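Quick one, tokens below. Sequence please?
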């Protein structure tokens, strides 16, 4: 294995758990909003996206790695928004 392949494997190993944590936080907030909120639903969903964005930012800053920060952050935030949207649509279909 070359040095670049070893470096790539090391980067992927810490990225996936942080991504799963960020999307898990988004899923928890999405489920909580879908279950408990009837009025002002979109305001609470915006709050859920904001909190998951802050969690994602903190998780990515915790890596202390500069290269790829913007792409990791944007991918994680976009995934959080999609997770919350899918949960909300599913919750609206069930009600």
């Amino acid at each position: 294995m070359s040095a670049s392949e070893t470096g790539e494997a090391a980067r992927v190993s810490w990225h996936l758990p942080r991504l799963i944590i960020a999307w898990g936080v988004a899923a928890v907030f999405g489920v909580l909003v879908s279950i408990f909120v009837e009025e002002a639903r979109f305001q609470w969903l915006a709050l859920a996206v904001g909190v998951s964005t802050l969690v994602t930012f903190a998780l990515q800053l915790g890596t202390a790695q500069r290269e790829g920060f913007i792409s990791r952050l944007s991918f994680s935030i976009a995934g959080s928004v999609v997770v919350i949207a899918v949960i909300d649509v599913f919750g609206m279909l069930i009600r």
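The CA atoms of residues 88 and 94 lie 10 Å apart. The helical segments are 3-36, 41-61, 69-94.
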